[in-house]
């Protein structure tokens, strides 16, 4: 079997995913009504985001399996100003590289004490913080002998449900980064580097978790 080669800008094919996941029709333009309810939300009060929503290691009776990590950073606008009160959602595979989803056919075990989803609101300085476990790699079904590096999925809502950024965070030093067609679908090398978090000793929890810093900078709008 031929070993996979590291991807380069010249040799990287455009990642398109599975055929049945691709849109079959052109997009429909959507212009929200400024007086409609979706233009004024989402609005989340303190009771809507629970105390354990941002700690994925404390959502079940037992301890999840895996390396515990803290992921924190700031959500900033294009001018570097903090974005307050933003809802962040996180979802991920477990330490074995398996999602709690019926569509995940990877032959890896589920963890009964890890669901892999969390959420939080940014504070007045734009800070967010999650405690979780480092996800495992998993094979990319549509690409032969290709494994996805460890990553976290993030969703950031704007002032309405029609304003949403979905992105991924990667871990520094992962040897699979050079082979990942999803990461290399981002054409700008600087933009790819911005998707990789940095280990931050200030975020480490002694004898418990390693800390990673990852800031999210939104567009000018």
Outline of the structure:
This protein is an all-beta fold. Helix content is 3%, strand content 24%.
- Total strands: 11
Number of helices: 1
How are helices and strands ordered from N to C? Answer: EEEEEEEEHEEE
User: What's the rounded overall pLDDT mean?
Assistant: 87
Taken from the alpha-carbon principal axes, the silhouette is globular
Structural class: mainly beta
Fraction of helical residues: under 10%
Q: Beta-strand level of the residues, as a percent range?
A: 15-25%
Which spans of ≥5 residues are poorly predicted at pLDDT below 50?
none
Just give the CATH class: Mainly Beta
Proper CATH architecture: Sandwich
Question: Largest sheet at a glance?
Answer: 5 strands, mixed
Cα end-to-end separation: 48 Å
């Amino acid at each position: 079997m031929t070993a996979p080669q590291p991807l380069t800008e010249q040799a990287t094919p455009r990642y398109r995913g599975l055929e049945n996941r691709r849109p079959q029709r052109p997009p429909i333009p959507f212009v929200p009504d400024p007086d409609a309810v979706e233009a004024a939300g989402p609005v989340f009060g303190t009771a809507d985001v629970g105390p354990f929503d941002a700690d994925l290691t404390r959502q079940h009776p037992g301890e999840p399996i895996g390396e515990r990590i803290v992921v924190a950073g700031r959500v900033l606008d294009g001018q570097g100003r903090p974005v307050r009160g933003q809802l962040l959602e996180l979802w991920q595979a477990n330490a074995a590289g398996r999602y709690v989803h019926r569509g995940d056919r990877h032959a890896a075990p589920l963890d009964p004490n890890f669901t892999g989803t969390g959420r939080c609101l940014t504070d007045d300085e734009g800070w967010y913080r999650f405690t979780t476990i480092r996800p495992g790699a998993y094979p990319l079904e549509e690409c032969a002998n290709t494994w996805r590096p460890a990553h976290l999925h993030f969703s950031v809502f704007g002032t309405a449900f029609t304003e949403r950024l979905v992105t991924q965070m990667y871990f520094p030093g992962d040897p699979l980064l050079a082979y990942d067609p999803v990461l290399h679908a981002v054409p700008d090398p600087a933009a790819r580097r911005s998707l990789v978090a940095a280990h931050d000793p200030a975020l480490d929890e002694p004898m418990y978790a390693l800390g990673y810093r990852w800031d999210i900078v939104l567009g000018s709008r």
